[in-house]
Amino acid sequence: TIWISTRPYDSILNDMKEEFANFYVKHYNFEPLTTDSQKEYLKSFWKQSVKVDEKFFERFVNELFILLNDNMKGDFLGLPLHIMLIGINFQNTFVAFQNTDTSEISTEQRQELLELVDLSSLYDKFVRLKCEIHCKHKGFSNLDTEAGKDIFKESYERCLKKSKMLALDSLLDGNELKILLAETEQTELKKY
């Protein structure tokens, strides 16, 4: 038995189906995490490093999820990696709000959360965190050195390029991609 996994991009799935058409292949899909599972994952993630007040957690996360779901498309929060990245990005905010000793999230705090959910900055944070995780996974644990900064920068630029190419692939059909991308870029896209 061989397991092959990929992101759910149509072009990749279609290429894989064509490539393995002569083999007996079972196709499985993973279901996104439920909202309750997302909350439980986030709570256990934060509990590893900070104290979590259950009542405040529920209020904070409900507000955060509403804002994120209003600004994100699809099942963004359904992926464990994305929940982890949300956890990393919003942990300090959660702790600061939790330490205000109020039982409700104030209008000012809600506004601050809304500003933190800005898609552009959130996306940049995600890409940086993914690159940092990738670099550490590859054995580059000290990214503060000059060599580490160079490795991170190279990884970040490569990750951005892949993300942009995959975004184009998910937004445009094959004919539009042929018009927009050079042949080398089309070949490169198939590798992703």
List keywords for this structure.
single chain; mainly alpha
Descriptive overview:
This protein has 192 residues and is an all-alpha fold. It has helices spanning 10-19, 35-47, 54-71, 80-98, 107-116, 119-137, 146-171, 174-180, 183-191. The longest helix is centred in the last third of the chain and has 26 residues, at 146-171. The model has no long low-confidence stretch (mean pLDDT 82).
Q: Would you kindly provide a brief summary of this structure?
A:
The chain has about 190 residues and is mainly α. The protein has helices at about 10-20, 35-45, 55-70, 80-100, 105-115, 120-135, 145-170, 175-180, 185-190.
